[in-house]
């Protein structure tokens, strides 16, 4: 702990900081629980945890308004919780039950909520990027001022369709924010081993798209960058690229050989950069909250997550007829 | 020599047009490239340029004539000293009579196929030899080890062979098929790529054009959909399009089909998709021996080969012959079990259900013959037909979707070639016609099951 930087002054209000703390903690505890349920065999297949990256979605959601859309990859649990989807419904989808957001038919990687404008949950690396530009196309076409947050990884940033989408997004001034969640690894391949580009956001320049690199472990920095990007998009100056420098603490998915990075590297990020600890420090050292206040929040969150887990275990498996539904509208 | 100027086709679909206007008159000196007439079609008016030089001797078709067929002579150009009158104005020809179609099929023997399946059939005589000599020493190994050995042996044998794909090197393979290869062959020959399927598949196809023999590993075949244009339009068709000059010796391999609980976008069997493509060869092994022998053949094959593996089979062990150089030819099915009452045809992981079903059927007194196709392009039709002529009944088993399945194709072929031998309709057991659900209970039902195979076999035996 001693190595953590002392928190810089922030002019965020107590309410704001508490909200970020709570939202990030919910994601972390939820993911830890998901990991546990996976270990118990209640969750199957691929399950990609978001632990470490919480500040990215929480900060960007703080810059969003009702009507804004979001779309991401298979590493999607955090995005869903941050946009207000119900923890019970997400967890029950992880266990493949009727009470899940996709009635158990989608699983960890494929969940959607029309109500919360969450467009998935996509398993093919890079595929969601043109889709996100398409959501923005629809908004521009319809003449509203919504923006779409299109999240993808550093690995996905090498897929060709990303650049096809960039070109058209700029050509047509689409209100889309391309959020590169650069957690430094694509499975076992570090960014350095997949590209010679010095930075990923700068590639947008070739298409005339503005962007910047952001400390994705600092929720306030994320929010500030998000607000700037959102303002540009709402003013018709989209698209915009935000490269979030972040880190995943856990393996790529539940099976991960963990040989491509050192344990020390992970520990150093946890000790020095952890996004939740950062906000905790701001609250405590700014005398905005006491240890007891935060403990009370922890307890509350634990209860929400336990309730979600119970629901996900008790919800029945989908009826067999569900095999044949939802294939055509 | 006088030259005829013919009514041009100004678009690929034009058959006739109106000679709207002559821009030259008889006696004019013409240069090549000069516009000599305006021609109208139902779509557009176009200018028609002369290709040859010469004096306009005669205009054969008057301005304003409609319905002038393409290739009708419309003018005659003469050289100095020649007279146009010497040139016979040819009568505009009617459409040329098509030659009679070759021999009607009346005299054909009944059991010869009226419709052939040329692309997928095996040329030449059926290979009935055993896969390895009797008495060969055997060794048990997993499908994973067999695949790795096949690649390692071929890489040792031919410097042009290299492996490329996501996580094949430092990570040792997402499913550990390439474990140890980086250590042995170095990063010149074991190439880690970014997540860029369309790009690296294209680069590998180009490298094959350039004389190398790439093995492209797709982390799973689901991701090859990103690259399918380069596989089909670039790899499969180039030999043909180049008139046989430029082949593409390449292997695209990786796990195909459903794993377990990985949902709709990660669970799909592409066997029938690729088997449709002329120019590709398609292999889908079940056992470790086949995985090894067929992969070695695939790497040596001068054509693009789609090699469909299966994650669930990777860890299964089978006996593999211990031989210096063991290969299995394409287009040679394997009869896993001889029987007399019903033929079960399958391939890849479908064999698991086929063989289990055969055991269960035996308990009930039904003798099933189980055939593993092993390769889907070419397909060993003969072995299937011969078996059906013996058992008079056939069912097929595969994991893919029912519409346009391999089973459909076999049923059609059997109908054409062994109709009179059938005592029951051919039944196709397939995955259900739905995207793969995630929920455990639904996933089980989406896949083909042994119980369904047993049921189908009994029903064609009227039991
Ligand atoms: C087209 C495609 N290729 C390969 C994969 C297998 N795969 C799944 S996630 C992944 C790594 C992606 O890394 P990144 O984009 O950085 O996202 P992160 O997992 O770090 O969030 C790979 C190779 C896939 N799902 N889709
Ligand atoms: Mg990454």
UniProtKB/TrEMBL annotation, chain A:
Purpose of the protein: The pyruvate dehydrogenase complex catalyzes the overall conversion of pyruvate to acetyl-CoA and CO(2). It contains multiple copies of three enzymatic components: pyruvate dehydrogenase (E1), dihydrolipoamide acetyltransferase (E2) and lipoamide dehydrogenase (E3).
Pfam families: E1_dh (PF00676)
Residue ranges occupied by any Dehydrogenase E1 component domain in the UniProt entry: 23-320
UniProt xrefs under InterPro entries: DH_E1, PDH_E1_Alpha_Subunit, Pyrv_DH_E1_asu_subgrp-y, THDP-binding
Cofactor: thiamine diphosphate
Name of the protein: Pyruvate dehydrogenase E1 component subunit alpha
Keyword list, A-Z: Oxidoreductase, Pyruvate, Thiamine pyrophosphate
Class of enzymatic activity (EC top level): oxidoreductase
Record's subunit section: Heterodimer of an alpha and a beta chain.
